[in-house]
Amino acid sequence: CGVYGVIGPKDAANFVALGLHALQHRGQEAGGIVSHDMDAGFNSARRFGYVRDNFTKASLMETLPGPIAIGHVRYSTAGAKGAAIRDVQPFFGEFSMGGAAIAHNGNLTNAEELRRELIERGSIFQSSSDTECIIHLMARSMAKSIPDRMEDALRRVEGAFSVVAMTRTKLMGVRDPLGVRPLVLGQIGDGDGWVLSSETCALDIIGAKYVREIEPGEMVVISPDGRIESRRPFRPVKPRFCVFEHVYFSRPDSIIGGRSVYETRRQIGVELAREAPVEADLVCPVPDSGTPAAIGYAHESGIPFGLGITRNQYMGRTFIEPTEQIRNMGVRLKLNVNRALVEGKRVVLVDDSVVRGTTSRKIKEMILDAGAKEVHFRIASPPTAWPCFYGVDTPERSKLLAATMTEDEMRDYLGVDSLRFVSLDGLYRAAGEAAGRDPQQPQYCDACFSGEYPVAPSDMIAKGFEV
Ligand code: 5GP
Ligand code: SF4
Ligand code: MG
To answer: Which of 122, 299, 353, 385 is the most exposed place for a label (fewest CB within 10 A)?
Structure first.
């Protein structure tokens, strides 16, 4: 998911709508905005579909007045799958001291346990979302201000959270102690206002200046006069940012941890070419997510780069479509092979990841149908063998190709001439860790590749998941 918040300018919701549009790649099912205005109070609009189809309508934006607003773009990981407007964020609740609204990127690993406890004590839930727990915990806290209550609430939750929240007058941003999901601070004009955003690409769209990242374990509270208070609600631990943000999730034009996401992806391709060279005539990306790595692979290997596959710009990301049936069709609806380019060639196909293997299988068929002589897959991440419980929608373990097959078995299953994945060390090097992965204290979260979960997924363990 993507989160965004603005304080300062008149009609902050208009800025939020633009920001959410730039974060659309992080969630395409639904979006929402909450704003506050001294006369109109809190207002909220939550809609299915793209930001551009909803939050461009003047009739809707007029209902979201005020100098403070937050927003969210959603794809479902926690809670009930599929469509329910009650699960669309931001969530808003009135309680003593005026109430608050909250938008959350990530996933809480103890939400089911908390929910049971809260319901037993009388809380009335309105959604199936893990995030709603935070609102109820805030409502029950005895602390004397809303930011203090938020601290209280967040000390009870476990898992991954980058949160943007608002009171009637203040904008707040928090990252979990490991800093699994991103969150950055930007400035509008010369002190006209402040922005919190999942990614820097959504600062660029409104012309805001990138100031800094919210640090892992940090909470910022921004007042209407522009003052920023930085708090440390949690015991400090060594950060473990999601390495998959670098591989796939973030937009390539964003800057994460001082690094260009594009450059990291290109460098993964360079590492792949060194680790897994092959004789071939053409390096082709699987668009769009494989493109920077393919550029790096071609450059390092000296094999010509070409766009052998064209993506239909009017389709979304395949994996963000939540049902398997749509995902299966999605590949053909979305990608087509350029026969004139691949015919008679030995082709290296570079993609970011193999999850279920559906995409790779279809693409291999399409490339061979178009007359390619050989197909070699090069994957810009290690085999995805474990589900993510921190906010990325991977299927259950049994559906992950790499959970049940070796690399050679996967190659045979996909029916390709060769299949190689970048190593964990290669990935870490590409992401700026010159010495590779520190096995004692890994610098990133890489649980979906290594099975080492930095936060025990306790709800899942209670249901029998074995780590
Ligand atoms: P597959 O067809 O192997 O299930 O999905 C792989 C494709 O889905 C990749 O091309 C990639 O762009 C996209 N994808 C990336 N990350 C994820 C993820 O976490 N979950 C899923 N289901 N698909 C992903
Ligand atoms: Fe990111 Fe994978 Fe960790 Fe999930 S498990 S937070 S996708 S690195
Ligand atoms: Mg892809």
So the answer is: 122
Q: Is the peptide bond prior to 288 cis by the omega test (within 30 degrees of 0)? A: yes
Strand ranges inside 192-281, DSSP E? 193-197, 209-213, 219-222, 228-231, 241-242, 255-256, 259-260
Residue 369: count of CB within 10 angstroms of its CB: 11
Q: Is 133 annotated as ligand-binding?
A: no
Q: How far is the CA of 321 from the centre of ligand 3 (A)?
A: 13
Give the distance (Å) from ligand 3 centre to CA of residue 411: 18
Q: Is 1 a catalytic residue?
A: yes
- The per-residue DSSP string of 35-85 comes to EEETTTEEEEEEEES-HHHHTT-HHHHTTS-SSEEEEEEE--SSSS-S--G
Tell me: the pLDDT tens digits for 68-121?
Answer: 999 999 987 654 556 789 999 999 999 988 889 999 999 999 999 999 999 999
Q: Which domains does the chain have, with CATH numbers?
A: 2-239 (3.60.20.10), 260-451 (3.40.50.2020)
| Ligand positioned closest to the Cα atom of 387 | 2
Residue 95, CB-side half-sphere exposure with 13 Å CA sphere: 22
pTM of the model: 0.95
Any binding-site annotation on 351?
yes
Q: Is the CB of 248 under 6 A from ligand 2?
A: no
- Categorize the per-residue pLDDT at 328 as very low, low, confident or very high, splitting at 50, 70 and 90: low
Establish whether residue 359 lines the binding site of ligand 1, counting it when its CB lies within 6 angstroms of any ligand atom.
yes
If one residue of 77, 243, 400, 455 were mutated to test the ligand 2 pocket, choosing by the most ligand atoms within 8 A of its CB, it would be 243
Residues 6+ apart with CB under 8 A from 130: 78, 79, 104, 107, 108, 111, 112, 115, 159
Pocket test of ligand 2: the residue of 247, 264, 386, 446 to mutate, having most ligand atoms within 8 Å of its CB, is: 446
Of the candidates 62, 45, 427, which has an alpha carbon nearest to the alpha carbon of residue 241?
427
